[in-house]
Amino acid sequence: MRLNKENKNLIFIFIITLTIIFLQPFVVSTSPNSFDDNNSVQIELPVESSFFLETGETWTRFYQGYELKVTYVNLEQQNIWLQLTQNGELVEEDILSEGDSLIYKKNSEKIFNITVDGIHIGPDGELVTFNPVYQYQDPTLPPPEVNNDQYNSNMNNDNVNHDNDTIPESGVNGTIFVFSLILMWFLLVNNFKSRK
């Protein structure tokens, strides 16, 4: 059975596509949240991606003894005073507005990246929302015991906004890589066919 040129090209595209799909898992794709400025691998810990605190309240659901406290809210200037402690010792504090992030590094390793999502006034006082929230393992401390059951139950409570959940960036990058290669091969084959 002899194949005409069109069928040969289709088979060629099919083989190239299968090859690219097979090789895709071997392509290393990284998220900026997984690496610090020195490109050393950091372990992202499963914390709640969003939560809220009233003035004077402390968020204790971090790992390795870290806690976050909203010390003061200035409604006129629309900013807050945040304090991050580790086992009761102040490690970072800052005055932030909506959209600002508290970024805490230890020995150039990023440990926290917490963004102030909103500053609100309610019947019981000021309320501050945080989203997104990232904690990375502090390599200078013993590794935390991550309880996935506890994490899953925390993720199901009312403080978590699942509307902001996204596909992991590494998966998106891999999909874009495969799609780009398939498109490139398709254009190359069409270009080759048009020259004949």
TrEMBL record:
S-layer family duplication domain boundaries: 48-163
Domain of life of the source: Archaea
One Pfam entry name: S-layer
Keyword entries, A-Z: Membrane, Transmembrane, Transmembrane helix
Keyword Membrane part of the UniProt annotation: yes
Membrane-traversing stretches: 171-189
InterPro entries membership: S_layer-rel_Mac
Name of the protein in question: S-layer family duplication domain-containing protein
Lineage: Archaea, Methanobacteriati, Methanobacteriota, Stenosarchaea group, Methanomicrobia
